[in-house]
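Dear all,

This email documents one entry for the complex benchmark we are building for the journal club exercise. For each entry we list the sequence lines for every component of the assembly. Then comes the predicted three-dimensional structure of the complex as a token string, followed by one or two observations. Please use this as the template for your own entries, and keep the labels exactly as they appear.
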Amino acid sequence: MKADPNALKILHAGALRKPIKECIHILWEKYPDLKVELDYAGSRACARAVAEGKIVDVIALADYQVFNDILIPRFVDTSFVFATDQMVLAFDEFSPESNQINEQNWMDVLPGNPAIKYARSDHRLDPCGYRTLILWQLAEQYYGRPGLYRELENGWSNLYPKSLDLAVALMEGKIDYGFEYLSVTKQMNLPYIQFPPQINLSDPRYAGYYARARVVIEGNYPGLETEILGAPIEFAVAIPRNSNQKVLAQEFIDILTGPRGEEVLEANGLIPC
Amino acid sequence: MEKTEGGASVALDRMIQPMLLLLILKKPAHGYELIQNFNAIHEDELVEPGTIYRNLRRMEKDGFVTSKWEAAESGPARRKYDITREGIIALREAAGKLERQKKQIEDFLAEYRNLAVEKGGDRP
């Protein structure tokens, strides 16, 4: 399909699918004939696409660090933090052990049980993936369970490109448990277990504690690895330098970060900030 | 919500809004920083980040604070909050109400202690 040069092109993290669509409907109130082209992927995959030449007017990602790592300063000047979230363990009411699992025993229930399929998203493509690995490292320390990280990392059954795919897989019964954002879990009406703030990556008060955990993302060539330190979850948005629709893009961002956007984000389980 | 003379209001049943106004009066700050500072003061009663962000937005709607985007040197831009004249008035009235509450508590405790000495032993 040939891209329309006048369309507003928005590229976003899969976790933002629903709130971004709802904000476009607000923009359409003012510009009912505006054509919008929407594309989504894991945040690192989105950023790589822009770095490799994809032209978009708005890019909204699940981690501002992805902007810093891949897009700033060559493709983007600044990113704007607009929402926060937390990691949870999502499941389905038909998942094995779903009536037994809780905040205290999840680390005993999941690993080593062949009847249970748990999954995460791919840390190379999606912040939810490396945040899961960070959560597991922090859980090992927090619960005083040496070896827990390795046990969990050796035991997952599926790896998905983005957090939204995890939630869909849960709904379809392909997996039983998924390490997921609270917002996506709420949007899909899935049951979930909350983790304590010391490990759920929601609280700036624990920023120093989160930073004890780190994930190395393999690069395409030796020596091109990226190290990611644990940090509170912060979603960010930006207008790439090569946008053809900067004024419209700014109008969209004003909606997303303004009072109506805040209502949309809140209704979708995110915390506008 | 407690009505002030100027029509402004501030939630006095909880300390969150006056505490945030006090922190912002000391130094305009981002929500991220305010959460860290707020919880450093209230270590025994941890307030969730969402509660602080929601109160900041509510106070902006009520005109007690304003916000603008500010980019950090090497980080992203975040909303930075500053206090308004309305906010300063609301904070002053919140402090006045707390003073009155403090006096009520002190009077109550003084009376209790006197009675305990008078009655002696384990009563009241």
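Observations: Residues 5 and 20 of chain A are 21 Å apart (CA to CA). The radius of gyration of chain A is 19 Å.
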